[in-house]
Amino acid sequence: MNILVTGANGQLGSEMRIVTKDTKDHYIFTDVVEVEGQETTILDITNIDAIRKVVSDNDVKVIVNCAAWTNVDGAEDPDKRELVELLNAKAPENLAIAMKEVNGLLVHISTDYVFGGDPYNTPCKEDQKGTPTGVYGLTKLHGEQNIQKTGVNHLIFRTAWLYSEFGKNFLKTMLNLTATKPQLKVVFDQVGTPTYALDLANAIVVAIEDYKKESLTLNNEPYTKNGVYHFSNEGVCSWYDFTKMIAEYAGQTECDIQPCHSSEFPSPVTRPSYSVLDKAKIKETFGIKIPYWTDSLRKCMSNLQDK
């Protein structure tokens, strides 16, 4: 099967390259810029005609959308809001339309930031009402809604606190800061679960394999597992706990890491204070076993050292 990946040079896209390197499927990795050493097809997903052309030319049956505007604070800039909506809401709709036209599947990555406005202290289920507190979360919610309205076969995976060996992320920032700063303050009143992008990439591949099997007998009927799913690693921690574990695993014990409140780091957007995702649905539907967050952190840090 021919499968297209957008945002292929980002964190998740880079992990998708790794987990699919030995597959029998043909993966087309696309982005808006090229990266040295990575074979990349240039594709602007805000241009529906460009999407249709690459889908037609390559007989694409599945699109995995890893592309998005992810700068949460930057999304609050009034001059950027139209662009954020275009990338996070309109572009996914374009991908959905293109897949609907060929009766294919769209796998779309969304976020825990669709929640946060209402108080809650139990893991978020897929049917919990979205109450985003900022432009980033709102536009990602719009993206989900736009996809669903098209009637395309779709899997929407909401994730949280994504990190990897690639690009800029919290893990790499904290590795640098705990190695160079004598003292560090990290918020302890935001709780969630770190997610290793490699684990999410593996889950996506499992879901695609399920779709491939069912697609042989669909006969233009909807995929029976269409819907929204939550994926993060298992367990719960704060950003403070996450940082403490990063420093411990790295052997960087000289930095004095102190817990602090979010109010000590003013931000243009209020981040969810509790964004733990309930993952029962994805585990039951696809038979996925999800690693505990500290185990995945160890694995990522080991892979980072090997790069």
Structure description:
With 307 residues, the protein is of the alpha/beta class. It has helices at 11-19, 48-58, 81-101, 135-150, 170-180, 197-215, 239-250, 280-286, 293-306; strands at 2-6, 26-31, 41-42, 62-65, 105-111, 153-159, 162-163, 183-187, 191-192, 195-196, 227-230, 237-238, 256-260. Helix 3 (81-101) packs parallel to helix 4 (135-150), helix 5 (170-180) crosses helix 7 (239-250) and helix 7 (239-250) packs across helix 9 (293-306). The longest helix is centred in the N-terminal third of the chain and has 21 residues, at 81-101. The protein is globular.
Can you lay out the helices and strands and say which pair or pack?
Elements: E1 2-6, H1 11-19, E2 26-31, E3 41-42, H2 48-58, E4 62-65, H3 81-101, E5 105-111, H4 135-150, E6 153-159, E7 162-163, H5 170-180, E8 183-187, E9 191-192, E10 195-196, H6 197-215, E11 227-230, E12 237-238, H7 239-250, E13 256-260, H8 280-286, H9 293-306
Parallel strand pairs: 1-2, 1-4, 2-3, 4-5, 5-6, 6-11, 7-10, 8-13
Antiparallel strand pairs: 9-12
